[in-house]
Structure formats: C-alpha cells, structure tokens
Predict the 3D structure of the following.
Amino acid sequence: MFVKASVACAIGLALGLWTSRAILANGGPFGVVAIGAWNVSAKAGSLEADPYTRAGLERSGEIPLALGEGLQLVARVDDAGRPLDARCAYRVGSRTPAARYWTLSLVDRDGFPIENAAGRYGFRSSEILRDADGGFSIFVSASAHAGNWLPIGAPSPFALVLRLYDSPLSATAGGIEKSAAPSIAREGCA
Amino acid sequence: MSVRERLGGAAIFLAAVLVVGALVHFIVILLIPVVATRDAFARLEDLGPADATIALARPSPTERRFPYADPALASAFCRFDLAAGPVRVKAAVGRAGFASLSFHTRRGAVFYALTDKAATHGVMEAIVVTPSQLRALVARDDEDNPSQDLRVVSTTTEGFVLMRAFSELPSLYAAAEAQAKSLSCAPEPAPK
C-alpha cells in the first residue's frame, strides 16, 4: 500500500513538472490567439496577463511589447501546420495587417537570432523590395535566394517573428482577419 | 483478488497520479513568478544602478540576455525606485521612425506605454508615482493652473522604463541608438 502510494506520488510529480514545462514552452494555453500559422499572446503586454503567460515571461526574461506599442506574432509552423524545418524553403508574404512599420525576423527555439554568414536576422517594412502592386515576398531558406532572402543559419528548429508597430489592431488581437496575416508557404525541401 | 478488485485498485492508483500531477502543475505555475530570479528586472539589475540610462546591446546570436527582442530596434532602459519620491521620465523623439516608452512593474508586466505620437514638442514625458504620491500631488494641485504632467501610477515601488527606437534602415541604427539613449529618469522630491 505504502509502496503503491509512493509510486503514485512520484509519477504524479513527474507528470506535473513535465506538463508545466511543456505548456510554458508553448506559451501557455490562455490568451493565445491563432491567426493562420501565427500566434499572438494577446495580453502579454498588459497587467491582465494570465498566470501561464506571466510565468513564461518571467522564466524567459522577455520584455514584452506593450499593447499600445504594437503586436508580436510568432509562427512555429507553416500554413499547412507542419513545423518549420531548416531543410525546407519558405515564401512569406505578401501582405501584413495594417501597421506603421513591421519587421519579420528569424529566431531559434529560445527567441534569439541565429548566426548566419550574411549577418541578416530580419527585414523591416521600410527596407524590403516590393512587387509592383505593393506586396512582398520574403524567402526563408538555408541557401541564398534572389530578392528578400532571410537565411536559416543552422539546421535546428526555428520560428518566425512578425512585429507590428503602432498598429490599430494592437488592442484587439481578435480583430485580425486570417487573410490579413502573411502566409508561410513551403516551397520545397532538401 | 478478483478482476473487479484489481481494476478498482488501478483506478484509484491512476486517480492518485492525476491528483498529485495536477497539484504539482498548478503549484509550479504559480510559484515561478515568486521564485524566478532571472526575470527581466533581475537581468536589467545586472547592467547598472537605478535611475541611470543604460543602452541595451543590439540583439544578436551572441547577445542572449532578452529573447524575442527586435534587431531593428535600439533600446535603452532605466530602473526606478519610488521609495524616495516620484521619477520624471523624458525622452526625445526623432524625426523618422517609431519610438516608444513602456513602463514595467518589478515583475515585468507593462502598466503603461506611450509612443512618439503622444509626444509634445518632440519630447515624450511622464512622471511615475505610487498611488499615495498621486494622492499627495492631486491634493496639492492648483485648480486654476492645472499641472501639465502626465502622471503614471505604478503598482510596485520598483520597476523599469524601456525606450524603443526604430531604425528604418540598417544604416540608421546608430541614430536610433542615440535616440534611445536620450531617455532620462530623474528622481523628484516626494510631494508633501
């Protein structure tokens, strides 16, 4: 009886720790709004953040963008829901939700830029090459690509981060149409 | 032991595992903010004293202090401590690009933010106060000649202000850095 109870406690402890870790690694179950492949932690930049969001921020040391400053969207999967893979090439485009400026950058699992020979970690809306109709395509791949090339520096999991500065949508993450968020199309894999 | 007894035993065991697991899970989630010693404030504390304006290094693969920071933005911060009195925060706004101030509690949560659109005469300015300092200031206000200050109430005595300045092009990053460093945090005498 005692042995059984101890085993139950031990397994329960492991289960509790594992679920905490797994949930925090994914940003928490609450207040995360999905827009296509992108996730927004809607309340991270406010005092109303839920305990999961708060715990995640405190553990990582991230300084979140305030709701009044802008919105940060993170994608770890492509449009079809497949995890972003360093062996594949992606085309990101061609529009973003309304914002005064936006930036798209590539980060590792922990949210830091990945070393690459080109020394490029992201693009600004004010520096990219655009199509004739004002749209854009950013090519995310390990090997060089003509146009806006965002290199994948290392063969490891990565995420794409889209930040919208001074966006009228800031206060209401739920108000973003799926069609307004840039698509992440997989173009082929090595 | 009958099959039924065995099944009953297994169910109790499983229930015990789930109850312990759920308990541990919620305790961990709620305890992290209390025991986290590497939160944003602690990381900023390593970089310098309160009230000083300190530039943050540009995010890069080797600069692994603050995750999910934007390499297109220059930033600087100052920590405040309201125990001795309010702190006046000022920052200059450049001609181009986006700039903002965000006000964070000791625990890192944002309690206020303003952008360059709210600047008057090219300066973003606010005074950070505790609830009791706000009451003292309001009691002292002159009704005919109201204060022009933007008063921002912090729920914690300690906290920090972060200035972000956007660079429209890579070549303008140095200008954005200079703009971020225009942040100043000056303690003011406590209102009597």
